[in-house]
Amino acid sequence: MNFFDYFQIASVVIFLVILVGKILYLRRRNINPIAIGGGKKGVVLAVELISVAGLMVWIVEVLLYAFHSDFRIFPSPLDRPLISSGPVKLIGVALISLGVTIFVMAYGSFGDSWRVGFDVKNPGELVTTGIFSVSRNPIYLALDLWFIGIFLINGTLIFLIFAALAVAAMHWQIRQEEAFLSNLYGQPYRDYYNRTGRYAGGRMKAEG
């Protein structure tokens, strides 16, 4: 194992620690942050469930590559290398590092409002400060950087496919959430929408 293997493992561990820690924190405050599937049907429900399952499979595949396991989830043709370059791998490390930084800042700014999925019954307050004054969707942006960075480190066809599908699926999810949040929060969200970019573009504001 080399630096890039350990780095990938560390990125997965950090992601899971932050995710599980936030869930446990909110549950201790009597808030259920998991809203996947609730009140949804059709394409929206299918995309949510497939996205969650796909993320879990992707994480397993990342760990299999990092530990140099002989077992692979997908057929060997998908292991075909597309790029293998030290500088490209370092770009991947930089993108993942940036993504992790954004991820941590987003979870800090979210406070008690963080949810997985659309929480129709108990939504949190609209968050527009901190990293959310720079990006309306910092967690999706962080995940995009993570998926792309993992592809650049490993350079195989399967991780390119995962990255392309993930970016497309998250963009679609963002569009659904924009309609949901506009209906939920009304004019305050629409004002926020108009002054802050979907992925980036805005002025950082102090918390509080």
Give me the secondary-structure topology:
Layout: H1 3-28, H2 42-66, H3 86-110, H4 138-154, H5 157-185, H6 187-195
Shape: globular
Per CATH, what is the topology? Four Helix Bundle (Hemerythrin (Met), subunit A)
**Whole-angstrom Rg:** 18 Å
Average pLDDT metric? 86
Helix count from the secondary structure assignment: 6
Share of β-strand residues: under 5%
| Straight-line distance between termini | 45 Å
Number of domains: 1
Number of strands: 0
Helix percent band: 55-70%
- Unreliable spans: none
Largest sheet: none
Provide the succession of SSEs. Answer: HHHHHH
CATH architecture: Up-down Bundle
- Name the assembly state: single chain
User: Structural class from helices and strands?
Assistant: mainly alpha
Kindly provide the name of the CATH class: Mainly Alpha
Explain this structure to me?
The chain is mainly α and 208 residues long. It has a single domain (3-195), classed as Up-down Bundle (Four Helix Bundle (Hemerythrin (Met), subunit A)), CATH 1.20.120.1630. It has six helices and no strands. The chain has helices at residues 3-28, 42-66, 86-110, 138-154, 157-185, 187-195. Helix 1 (3-28) crosses helix 2 (42-66), helix 1 packs parallel to helix 3 (86-110) and helix 2 runs antiparallel to helix 5 (157-185).
